[in-house]
Amino acid sequence: MVWLSDEPNFLTIFFYILTEGLFVTLALTALGLLIGFALGLLLALMRVYGPTEIGWFASGYEKIFRGIPVLILIFIFAFGIPRLFWYLEPLERPMAGVILALGLRSAAYQSQIFRGAILSVQPGQTAAARALGMNGFQSFRHIVFPQAIRLAVPSWSNEYAVVIKDSSFAYGVGILEMTRAAFDISANFPELLSLSMGIVAIIYLIFTYPVTKLFGERQTKKLKDFGMGGG
Amino acid sequence: MKREMAVIGMVVCIAVGLIVGFFLPGLLTPASTPGKTLVEEIQDRGELIVGTDAPWPPFELYNTTTSTWEGFDIDLSQMVADELGVDLVVTNILFDELIGACKAGTIDMIAAAMMVKPSRTEELAHSVTYIRVNEVIIAKGTSTITISDFDDVTGYIMGCQSGTTQHDALLDLGMTEGVDLYVYPKANTLMASLEAGAIDLAYVDEPVVSVWAKTQSLKIIYTVPAEPMALWARWEEPELMMEINNVILEAYRTGDMDDLYEKWFG
Description:
The complex is a heterodimer.
Chain A: H1 10-49, H2 52-66, H3 70-80, H4 92-119, H5 123-131, H6 136-166, H7 178-188, H8 193-225
Helix pairs in contact in A: 1-2, 1-4, 1-6, 1-7, 1-8, 2-4, 3-4, 4-6, 5-6, 6-8, 7-8
Chain B: H1 2-27, H2 38-45, E1 47-52, E2 61-63, E3 68-70, H3 72-84, E4 87-92, H4 95-104, E5 109-115, H5 118-123, E6 125-126, E7 134-140, E8 158-161, H6 165-172, E9 181-184, H7 187-196, E10 201-205, H8 206-212, E11 218-225, E12 229-233, H9 238-254, H10 256-265
Parallel strand pairs in B: 1-4, 1-5, 8-9, 8-10
Antiparallel strand pairs in B: 2-3, 5-12, 6-12, 7-10, 7-11
Helix pairs in contact in B: 3-9
Protein backbone atom coordinates (compact mmCIF):
# COMPACT_ATOMS: atom_id res chain seq x y z
CA MET A 1 0.00 0.00 0.00
CA VAL A 2 2.25 2.65 -1.33
CA TRP A 3 0.34 5.23 -3.22
CA LEU A 4 -1.09 7.63 -0.69
CA SER A 5 1.94 9.90 -0.60
CA ASP A 6 2.12 13.68 -0.51
CA GLU A 7 -1.19 15.31 -1.11
CA PRO A 8 -1.15 17.45 -4.26
CA ASN A 9 -2.38 21.03 -4.07
CA PHE A 10 -4.20 23.22 -6.57
CA LEU A 11 -1.10 24.10 -8.59
CA THR A 12 0.37 20.62 -8.77
CA ILE A 13 -2.97 19.19 -9.95
CA PHE A 14 -3.30 22.03 -12.47
CA PHE A 15 0.11 21.35 -13.99
CA TYR A 16 -0.32 17.58 -13.77
CA ILE A 17 -3.46 17.76 -15.89
CA LEU A 18 -1.77 20.13 -18.35
CA THR A 19 1.40 18.07 -18.77
CA GLU A 20 -0.37 14.70 -18.95
CA GLY A 21 -3.39 15.58 -21.00
CA LEU A 22 -3.28 18.96 -22.73
CA PHE A 23 -1.38 17.86 -25.81
CA VAL A 24 -3.66 14.93 -26.54
CA THR A 25 -6.81 16.97 -25.94
CA LEU A 26 -5.62 19.68 -28.33
CA ALA A 27 -4.47 17.11 -30.89
CA LEU A 28 -7.84 15.32 -30.82
CA THR A 29 -9.60 18.68 -31.16
CA ALA A 30 -7.39 19.97 -33.97
CA LEU A 31 -7.54 16.78 -36.03
CA GLY A 32 -11.27 16.38 -35.41
CA LEU A 33 -11.88 19.96 -36.52
CA LEU A 34 -9.66 19.48 -39.56
CA ILE A 35 -11.58 16.41 -40.75
CA GLY A 36 -14.80 18.24 -39.97
CA PHE A 37 -13.64 21.30 -41.92
CA ALA A 38 -12.67 19.39 -45.06
CA LEU A 39 -15.73 17.18 -45.07
CA GLY A 40 -18.07 19.92 -43.86
CA LEU A 41 -17.00 22.33 -46.59
CA LEU A 42 -17.45 19.58 -49.17
CA LEU A 43 -20.93 18.78 -47.89
CA ALA A 44 -21.87 22.46 -47.89
CA LEU A 45 -20.70 22.82 -51.51
CA MET A 46 -22.64 19.70 -52.41
CA ARG A 47 -25.79 21.15 -50.90
CA VAL A 48 -25.44 24.65 -52.36
CA TYR A 49 -24.06 23.96 -55.83
CA GLY A 50 -24.63 20.25 -56.38
CA PRO A 51 -27.57 18.68 -58.19
CA THR A 52 -30.60 17.86 -56.06
CA GLU A 53 -29.67 14.19 -55.60
CA ILE A 54 -26.20 15.08 -54.30
CA GLY A 55 -27.89 17.57 -51.99
CA TRP A 56 -30.06 14.76 -50.64
CA PHE A 57 -26.98 12.74 -49.86
CA ALA A 58 -25.36 15.65 -48.02
CA SER A 59 -28.44 16.48 -46.00
CA GLY A 60 -28.94 12.77 -45.23
CA TYR A 61 -25.39 12.63 -43.89
CA GLU A 62 -26.04 15.68 -41.72
CA LYS A 63 -29.24 14.23 -40.33
CA ILE A 64 -27.58 10.93 -39.44
CA PHE A 65 -24.49 12.34 -37.77
CA ARG A 66 -26.32 15.10 -35.96
CA GLY A 67 -28.63 12.47 -34.53
CA ILE A 68 -26.02 10.17 -33.00
CA PRO A 69 -24.38 10.97 -29.63
CA VAL A 70 -20.66 11.41 -30.05
CA LEU A 71 -19.95 8.87 -27.29
CA ILE A 72 -21.74 6.20 -29.29
CA LEU A 73 -19.76 7.14 -32.41
CA ILE A 74 -16.55 6.91 -30.39
CA PHE A 75 -17.38 3.41 -29.14
CA ILE A 76 -18.34 2.32 -32.67
CA PHE A 77 -15.15 3.57 -34.30
CA ALA A 78 -12.79 2.72 -31.41
CA PHE A 79 -13.89 -0.86 -30.68
CA GLY A 80 -16.94 -1.63 -32.80
CA ILE A 81 -15.16 -1.90 -36.16
CA PRO A 82 -11.76 -3.42 -35.30
CA ARG A 83 -10.45 -3.65 -38.89
CA LEU A 84 -11.16 -0.02 -39.66
CA PHE A 85 -7.61 1.02 -38.78
CA TRP A 86 -5.84 -2.29 -39.38
CA TYR A 87 -2.64 -0.53 -40.50
CA LEU A 88 -2.19 1.25 -37.15
CA GLU A 89 -0.66 -0.11 -33.95
CA PRO A 90 -3.36 -1.58 -31.68
CA LEU A 91 -3.21 1.29 -29.19
CA GLU A 92 -3.40 3.93 -31.91
CA ARG A 93 -6.69 2.51 -33.17
CA PRO A 94 -8.94 3.92 -30.41
CA MET A 95 -7.20 7.28 -30.87
CA ALA A 96 -7.91 7.23 -34.61
CA GLY A 97 -11.46 6.13 -33.84
CA VAL A 98 -12.02 9.11 -31.55
CA ILE A 99 -10.61 11.55 -34.12
CA LEU A 100 -12.81 10.05 -36.83
CA ALA A 101 -15.89 10.17 -34.60
CA LEU A 102 -15.26 13.80 -33.63
CA GLY A 103 -14.48 14.68 -37.25
CA LEU A 104 -17.53 13.03 -38.81
CA ARG A 105 -19.84 14.52 -36.21
CA SER A 106 -18.25 17.95 -36.54
CA ALA A 107 -18.55 17.77 -40.34
CA ALA A 108 -22.31 17.50 -40.03
CA TYR A 109 -22.42 20.73 -38.03
CA GLN A 110 -19.71 22.56 -39.96
CA SER A 111 -21.56 21.81 -43.19
CA GLN A 112 -24.48 23.84 -41.86
CA ILE A 113 -22.14 26.66 -40.85
CA PHE A 114 -20.54 26.87 -44.30
CA ARG A 115 -23.82 26.44 -46.13
CA GLY A 116 -25.26 29.37 -44.22
CA ALA A 117 -22.15 31.44 -44.85
CA ILE A 118 -22.08 30.75 -48.59
CA LEU A 119 -25.77 31.52 -48.96
CA SER A 120 -25.45 34.78 -47.06
CA VAL A 121 -23.14 36.22 -49.71
CA GLN A 122 -25.52 38.16 -51.92
CA PRO A 123 -26.28 36.42 -55.23
CA GLY A 124 -25.87 39.76 -57.01
CA GLN A 125 -22.13 39.55 -56.38
CA THR A 126 -21.89 36.26 -58.28
CA ALA A 127 -23.92 37.74 -61.09
CA ALA A 128 -21.58 40.75 -61.19
CA ALA A 129 -18.52 38.48 -61.23
CA ARG A 130 -19.97 36.43 -64.09
CA ALA A 131 -20.69 39.68 -65.96
CA LEU A 132 -17.02 40.61 -65.59
CA GLY A 133 -16.12 37.41 -67.40
CA MET A 134 -15.28 35.09 -64.50
CA ASN A 135 -16.40 31.50 -64.86
CA GLY A 136 -18.37 29.71 -62.14
CA PHE A 137 -15.33 28.40 -60.31
CA GLN A 138 -13.48 31.73 -60.46
CA SER A 139 -16.44 33.65 -59.09
CA PHE A 140 -16.70 31.20 -56.22
CA ARG A 141 -12.96 31.14 -55.56
CA HIS A 142 -12.40 34.92 -55.67
CA ILE A 143 -15.72 36.44 -54.69
CA VAL A 144 -17.94 34.12 -52.67
CA PHE A 145 -15.49 31.91 -50.79
CA PRO A 146 -13.31 34.66 -49.21
CA GLN A 147 -16.40 36.34 -47.81
CA ALA A 148 -18.10 33.12 -46.77
CA ILE A 149 -15.07 31.91 -44.83
CA ARG A 150 -14.99 35.18 -42.88
CA LEU A 151 -18.69 34.99 -42.20
CA ALA A 152 -18.26 31.43 -40.94
CA VAL A 153 -15.59 32.30 -38.36
CA PRO A 154 -17.87 33.26 -35.43
CA SER A 155 -20.00 30.11 -35.69
CA TRP A 156 -16.90 28.07 -36.39
CA SER A 157 -15.29 29.21 -33.12
CA ASN A 158 -18.37 27.86 -31.39
CA GLU A 159 -17.83 24.52 -33.12
CA TYR A 160 -14.27 24.49 -31.78
CA ALA A 161 -15.66 24.92 -28.26
CA VAL A 162 -18.02 21.99 -28.84
CA VAL A 163 -15.31 19.68 -30.16
CA ILE A 164 -12.75 20.42 -27.44
CA LYS A 165 -15.36 19.65 -24.79
CA ASP A 166 -16.53 16.49 -26.55
CA SER A 167 -12.94 15.25 -26.79
CA SER A 168 -13.32 14.49 -23.07
CA PHE A 169 -15.38 11.41 -24.05
CA ALA A 170 -12.12 9.86 -25.24
CA TYR A 171 -11.41 8.92 -21.62
CA GLY A 172 -13.87 6.07 -22.03
CA VAL A 173 -11.73 4.26 -24.58
CA GLY A 174 -8.45 4.49 -22.70
CA ILE A 175 -6.93 7.68 -24.06
CA LEU A 176 -4.96 9.77 -21.61
CA GLU A 177 -6.32 13.27 -22.13
CA MET A 178 -7.24 15.98 -19.63
CA THR A 179 -10.40 14.35 -18.27
CA ARG A 180 -8.58 11.06 -17.76
CA ALA A 181 -5.72 12.88 -16.00
CA ALA A 182 -8.21 14.55 -13.64
CA PHE A 183 -9.86 11.17 -12.99
CA ASP A 184 -6.49 9.61 -12.22
CA ILE A 185 -5.84 12.27 -9.58
CA SER A 186 -9.15 11.55 -7.92
CA ALA A 187 -8.39 7.82 -8.07
CA ASN A 188 -5.20 8.37 -6.10
CA PHE A 189 -6.72 10.92 -3.75
CA PRO A 190 -10.47 10.24 -3.48
CA GLU A 191 -11.00 13.27 -1.25
CA LEU A 192 -9.77 15.49 -4.09
CA LEU A 193 -12.53 14.48 -6.52
CA SER A 194 -14.28 17.85 -6.42
CA LEU A 195 -11.01 19.77 -6.60
CA SER A 196 -9.59 17.86 -9.57
CA MET A 197 -12.89 18.04 -11.46
CA GLY A 198 -13.10 21.76 -10.67
CA ILE A 199 -9.59 22.33 -11.93
CA VAL A 200 -10.14 20.45 -15.17
CA ALA A 201 -13.33 22.46 -15.64
CA ILE A 202 -11.32 25.67 -15.29
CA ILE A 203 -8.76 24.42 -17.81
CA TYR A 204 -11.47 23.63 -20.38
CA LEU A 205 -12.88 27.10 -19.77
CA ILE A 206 -9.46 28.68 -20.32
CA PHE A 207 -9.23 26.90 -23.65
CA THR A 208 -12.73 27.75 -24.84
CA TYR A 209 -13.76 31.20 -23.61
CA PRO A 210 -10.85 33.31 -24.96
CA VAL A 211 -11.11 31.61 -28.34
CA THR A 212 -14.84 32.08 -28.70
CA LYS A 213 -14.41 35.64 -27.44
CA LEU A 214 -11.60 36.45 -29.85
CA PHE A 215 -12.96 34.75 -32.94
CA GLY A 216 -16.61 35.05 -32.10
CA GLU A 217 -17.35 38.51 -30.80
CA ARG A 218 -14.44 40.39 -32.36
CA GLN A 219 -14.95 38.85 -35.77
CA THR A 220 -18.65 39.60 -35.62
CA LYS A 221 -17.85 43.23 -34.84
CA LYS A 222 -15.28 43.38 -37.64
CA LEU A 223 -17.78 41.94 -40.09
CA LYS A 224 -20.35 44.51 -39.01
CA ASP A 225 -17.85 47.26 -39.86
CA PHE A 226 -17.76 45.86 -43.38
CA GLY A 227 -21.52 45.67 -43.41
CA MET A 228 -21.49 41.90 -43.46
CA GLY A 229 -23.15 39.27 -41.33
CA GLY A 230 -25.74 39.49 -38.65
CA GLY A 231 -23.90 37.96 -35.69
CA MET B 1 -37.45 11.49 -65.53
CA LYS B 2 -38.64 11.04 -61.93
CA ARG B 3 -39.06 7.32 -62.47
CA GLU B 4 -35.59 7.02 -63.99
CA MET B 5 -34.10 8.77 -60.97
CA ALA B 6 -35.95 6.44 -58.61
CA VAL B 7 -34.63 3.38 -60.48
CA ILE B 8 -31.07 4.72 -60.49
CA GLY B 9 -31.42 5.55 -56.80
CA MET B 10 -32.56 2.03 -55.98
CA VAL B 11 -29.75 0.46 -58.00
CA VAL B 12 -27.18 2.68 -56.27
CA CYS B 13 -28.60 1.86 -52.82
CA ILE B 14 -28.58 -1.88 -53.51
CA ALA B 15 -25.00 -1.69 -54.82
CA VAL B 16 -23.83 0.27 -51.77
CA GLY B 17 -25.64 -2.18 -49.50
CA LEU B 18 -23.97 -5.16 -51.17
CA ILE B 19 -20.52 -3.57 -50.96
CA VAL B 20 -20.97 -2.67 -47.28
CA GLY B 21 -22.38 -6.13 -46.59
CA PHE B 22 -19.40 -7.72 -48.28
CA PHE B 23 -16.81 -5.81 -46.29
CA LEU B 24 -18.60 -5.54 -42.95
CA PRO B 25 -17.96 -9.07 -41.57
CA GLY B 26 -14.27 -8.61 -42.37
CA LEU B 27 -14.22 -5.30 -40.54
CA LEU B 28 -15.75 -6.82 -37.44
CA THR B 29 -13.09 -9.48 -36.86
CA PRO B 30 -9.84 -8.62 -35.10
CA ALA B 31 -7.07 -7.27 -37.31
CA SER B 32 -4.16 -9.69 -37.28
CA THR B 33 -1.22 -10.40 -39.51
CA PRO B 34 -1.93 -13.57 -41.47
CA GLY B 35 0.32 -16.54 -40.80
CA LYS B 36 1.50 -15.20 -37.47
CA THR B 37 0.36 -16.10 -33.99
CA LEU B 38 -0.44 -13.30 -31.57
CA VAL B 39 2.62 -14.22 -29.50
CA GLU B 40 4.88 -13.67 -32.53
CA GLU B 41 3.07 -10.43 -33.27
CA ILE B 42 3.55 -9.23 -29.68
CA GLN B 43 7.25 -10.08 -29.85
CA ASP B 44 7.65 -8.26 -33.17
CA ARG B 45 5.89 -5.27 -31.72
CA GLY B 46 7.92 -5.48 -28.49
CA GLU B 47 4.87 -4.64 -26.38
CA LEU B 48 2.24 -6.64 -24.54
CA ILE B 49 -0.89 -4.49 -24.49
CA VAL B 50 -2.96 -5.14 -21.41
CA GLY B 51 -6.39 -3.64 -20.87
CA THR B 52 -7.55 -2.80 -17.40
CA ASP B 53 -10.06 -0.67 -15.59
CA ALA B 54 -8.54 1.61 -13.01
CA PRO B 55 -9.00 2.70 -10.29
CA TRP B 56 -9.64 -0.66 -8.66
CA PRO B 57 -6.90 -0.72 -6.02
CA PRO B 58 -5.09 -2.77 -4.92
CA PHE B 59 -5.51 -4.61 -8.24
CA GLU B 60 -4.80 -1.69 -10.53
CA LEU B 61 -4.16 1.99 -10.07
CA TYR B 62 -2.35 4.64 -12.06
CA ASN B 63 -0.11 6.41 -9.58
CA THR B 64 -0.18 10.08 -10.47
CA THR B 65 2.77 10.87 -8.18
CA THR B 66 5.21 8.57 -9.97
CA SER B 67 3.31 8.30 -13.29
CA THR B 68 3.46 4.51 -13.19
CA TRP B 69 0.97 1.67 -13.07
CA GLU B 70 0.73 -0.24 -9.81
CA GLY B 71 -1.21 -3.14 -8.44
CA PHE B 72 -1.52 -6.89 -8.21
CA ASP B 73 -2.80 -7.38 -11.75
CA ILE B 74 -0.11 -5.05 -13.09
CA ASP B 75 2.68 -7.05 -11.42
CA LEU B 76 1.21 -10.27 -12.77
CA SER B 77 0.95 -8.79 -16.26
CA GLN B 78 4.56 -7.64 -15.95
CA MET B 79 5.56 -11.27 -15.31
CA VAL B 80 3.77 -12.31 -18.51
CA ALA B 81 5.50 -9.52 -20.43
CA ASP B 82 8.88 -10.56 -18.99
CA GLU B 83 8.22 -14.16 -20.02
CA LEU B 84 7.53 -13.00 -23.60
CA GLY B 85 10.55 -10.70 -23.46
CA VAL B 86 8.57 -7.54 -24.23
CA ASP B 87 7.54 -4.30 -22.51
CA LEU B 88 4.23 -4.00 -20.70
CA VAL B 89 1.82 -1.34 -21.93
CA VAL B 90 -1.31 -0.77 -19.87
CA THR B 91 -4.38 0.94 -21.25
CA ASN B 92 -7.23 2.12 -19.07
CA ILE B 93 -10.67 1.39 -20.55
CA LEU B 94 -14.17 1.29 -19.05
CA PHE B 95 -14.88 -2.15 -17.55
CA ASP B 96 -17.87 -2.66 -19.87
CA GLU B 97 -15.69 -2.13 -22.92
CA LEU B 98 -12.83 -4.47 -21.97
CA ILE B 99 -14.24 -7.66 -23.48
CA GLY B 100 -15.19 -5.84 -26.69
CA ALA B 101 -11.74 -4.25 -26.91
CA CYS B 102 -10.04 -7.62 -26.44
CA LYS B 103 -12.22 -9.30 -29.06
CA ALA B 104 -11.48 -6.40 -31.39
CA GLY B 105 -7.74 -6.91 -30.94
CA THR B 106 -7.10 -3.45 -29.49
CA ILE B 107 -5.69 -5.15 -26.41
CA ASP B 108 -3.96 -8.53 -26.16
CA MET B 109 -5.02 -9.46 -22.66
CA ILE B 110 -7.37 -8.30 -19.90
CA ALA B 111 -6.02 -7.94 -16.37
CA ALA B 112 -8.80 -6.22 -14.49
CA ALA B 113 -9.68 -8.38 -11.47
CA MET B 114 -12.20 -10.00 -13.80
CA MET B 115 -14.05 -12.92 -12.28
CA VAL B 116 -14.75 -16.13 -14.16
CA LYS B 117 -18.36 -16.45 -15.16
CA PRO B 118 -20.12 -18.39 -17.92
CA SER B 119 -21.31 -15.46 -20.03
CA ARG B 120 -17.75 -14.11 -20.19
CA THR B 121 -16.25 -17.46 -21.16
CA GLU B 122 -18.54 -17.46 -24.18
CA GLU B 123 -16.71 -14.38 -25.40
CA LEU B 124 -13.13 -14.90 -24.23
CA ALA B 125 -10.85 -17.58 -22.82
CA HIS B 126 -9.61 -17.26 -19.26
CA SER B 127 -6.37 -18.35 -17.68
CA VAL B 128 -5.71 -20.42 -14.59
CA THR B 129 -7.40 -18.50 -11.79
CA TYR B 130 -4.98 -16.64 -9.56
CA ILE B 131 -6.94 -15.20 -6.68
CA ARG B 132 -10.31 -15.37 -5.05
CA VAL B 133 -11.63 -12.53 -2.96
CA ASN B 134 -14.94 -11.84 -1.31
CA GLU B 135 -17.46 -9.37 -2.55
CA VAL B 136 -18.85 -7.11 0.12
CA ILE B 137 -21.76 -4.81 0.66
CA ILE B 138 -20.57 -1.59 2.26
CA ALA B 139 -22.26 1.37 3.84
CA LYS B 140 -21.09 4.70 5.21
CA GLY B 141 -19.49 4.42 8.65
CA THR B 142 -22.38 6.32 10.21
CA SER B 143 -25.04 4.15 8.58
CA THR B 144 -27.31 2.01 10.77
CA ILE B 145 -28.35 -0.37 7.99
CA THR B 146 -27.88 -4.07 8.72
CA ILE B 147 -28.82 -6.99 6.55
CA SER B 148 -28.87 -10.68 7.42
CA ASP B 149 -29.37 -12.07 3.95
CA PHE B 150 -28.11 -10.98 0.53
CA ASP B 151 -31.70 -10.66 -0.77
CA ASP B 152 -32.34 -7.95 1.84
CA VAL B 153 -30.42 -5.40 -0.25
CA THR B 154 -33.47 -5.00 -2.47
CA GLY B 155 -34.94 -2.73 0.19
CA TYR B 156 -32.17 -0.15 -0.27
CA ILE B 157 -30.72 2.05 -3.00
CA MET B 158 -27.72 0.08 -4.26
CA GLY B 159 -24.67 1.14 -6.25
CA CYS B 160 -22.09 -0.89 -8.14
CA GLN B 161 -19.70 -0.70 -11.05
CA SER B 162 -21.03 -1.23 -14.54
CA GLY B 163 -20.49 -4.63 -16.18
CA THR B 164 -19.17 -6.35 -13.06
CA THR B 165 -20.41 -9.61 -11.53
CA GLN B 166 -21.84 -7.44 -8.74
CA HIS B 167 -23.90 -5.61 -11.34
CA ASP B 168 -25.27 -8.93 -12.67
CA ALA B 169 -26.00 -10.25 -9.19
CA LEU B 170 -28.04 -7.17 -8.31
CA LEU B 171 -29.93 -7.33 -11.58
CA ASP B 172 -30.66 -11.01 -10.91
CA LEU B 173 -32.32 -9.95 -7.66
CA GLY B 174 -34.79 -8.02 -9.78
CA MET B 175 -33.42 -4.55 -9.02
CA THR B 176 -34.06 -1.86 -11.60
CA GLU B 177 -31.40 0.51 -12.85
CA GLY B 178 -32.30 4.11 -12.19
CA VAL B 179 -34.88 3.12 -9.56
CA ASP B 180 -33.15 1.24 -6.77
CA LEU B 181 -29.87 0.44 -8.54
CA TYR B 182 -27.31 2.97 -9.70
CA VAL B 183 -24.46 1.84 -11.89
CA TYR B 184 -21.19 3.75 -12.20
CA PRO B 185 -18.52 3.49 -14.91
CA LYS B 186 -15.64 3.98 -12.46
CA ALA B 187 -15.05 2.90 -8.87
CA ASN B 188 -14.14 6.38 -7.63
CA THR B 189 -17.43 7.86 -8.76
CA LEU B 190 -19.21 4.96 -7.05
CA MET B 191 -17.41 5.69 -3.78
CA ALA B 192 -18.05 9.42 -4.09
CA SER B 193 -21.78 8.70 -4.53
CA LEU B 194 -21.81 6.56 -1.41
CA GLU B 195 -20.08 9.35 0.49
CA ALA B 196 -22.53 11.93 -0.86
CA GLY B 197 -25.49 9.78 0.20
CA ALA B 198 -26.85 9.26 -3.31
CA ILE B 199 -26.86 5.51 -2.68
CA ASP B 200 -27.41 3.64 0.60
CA LEU B 201 -25.10 0.71 -0.07
CA ALA B 202 -22.36 -0.20 -2.52
CA TYR B 203 -21.41 -3.68 -3.71
CA VAL B 204 -17.68 -4.11 -4.45
CA ASP B 205 -14.69 -6.47 -4.15
CA GLU B 206 -13.42 -6.65 -0.58
CA PRO B 207 -9.77 -5.53 -1.13
CA VAL B 208 -11.00 -2.34 -2.77
CA VAL B 209 -12.71 -1.25 0.42
CA SER B 210 -9.52 -1.14 2.45
CA VAL B 211 -8.04 1.49 0.15
CA TRP B 212 -11.00 3.86 0.21
CA ALA B 213 -11.44 3.22 3.95
CA LYS B 214 -8.30 5.30 4.42
CA THR B 215 -10.01 8.49 3.35
CA GLN B 216 -13.67 7.61 3.77
CA SER B 217 -15.55 6.21 6.73
CA LEU B 218 -16.85 2.86 5.49
CA LYS B 219 -18.11 -0.34 7.03
CA ILE B 220 -18.72 -3.78 5.65
CA ILE B 221 -22.21 -5.01 6.46
CA TYR B 222 -22.37 -8.23 4.43
CA THR B 223 -19.84 -10.54 2.79
CA VAL B 224 -20.51 -12.74 -0.24
CA PRO B 225 -18.06 -15.40 -1.47
CA ALA B 226 -17.28 -14.79 -5.13
CA GLU B 227 -15.87 -16.62 -8.15
CA PRO B 228 -12.09 -16.61 -8.64
CA MET B 229 -10.37 -14.09 -10.90
CA ALA B 230 -8.38 -14.78 -14.05
CA LEU B 231 -6.56 -13.13 -16.92
CA TRP B 232 -8.45 -13.13 -20.22
CA ALA B 233 -7.44 -13.41 -23.87
CA ARG B 234 -9.04 -14.43 -27.16
CA TRP B 235 -10.02 -18.07 -27.75
CA GLU B 236 -8.29 -17.92 -31.14
CA GLU B 237 -4.87 -17.42 -29.52
CA PRO B 238 -4.09 -20.56 -27.50
CA GLU B 239 -0.32 -19.87 -27.66
CA LEU B 240 -0.72 -16.66 -25.69
CA MET B 241 -3.00 -18.35 -23.17
CA MET B 242 -0.42 -21.12 -22.73
CA GLU B 243 2.25 -18.54 -21.94
CA ILE B 244 -0.06 -16.78 -19.46
CA ASN B 245 -0.91 -20.06 -17.73
CA ASN B 246 2.76 -21.03 -17.59
CA VAL B 247 3.58 -17.75 -15.88
CA ILE B 248 0.86 -18.16 -13.26
CA LEU B 249 1.69 -21.80 -12.52
CA GLU B 250 5.40 -20.99 -12.37
CA ALA B 251 4.68 -18.11 -9.98
CA TYR B 252 2.85 -20.52 -7.68
CA ARG B 253 5.77 -23.00 -7.87
CA THR B 254 8.50 -20.46 -7.14
CA GLY B 255 6.56 -18.64 -4.45
CA ASP B 256 6.41 -15.38 -6.42
CA MET B 257 2.63 -15.53 -6.15
CA ASP B 258 2.81 -15.63 -2.36
CA ASP B 259 5.12 -12.61 -2.46
CA LEU B 260 2.57 -10.78 -4.57
CA TYR B 261 -0.25 -11.61 -2.15
CA GLU B 262 1.94 -10.35 0.68
CA LYS B 263 2.82 -7.16 -1.21
CA TRP B 264 -0.73 -6.13 -2.15
CA PHE B 265 -2.97 -7.79 0.42
CA GLY B 266 -0.58 -8.37 3.32
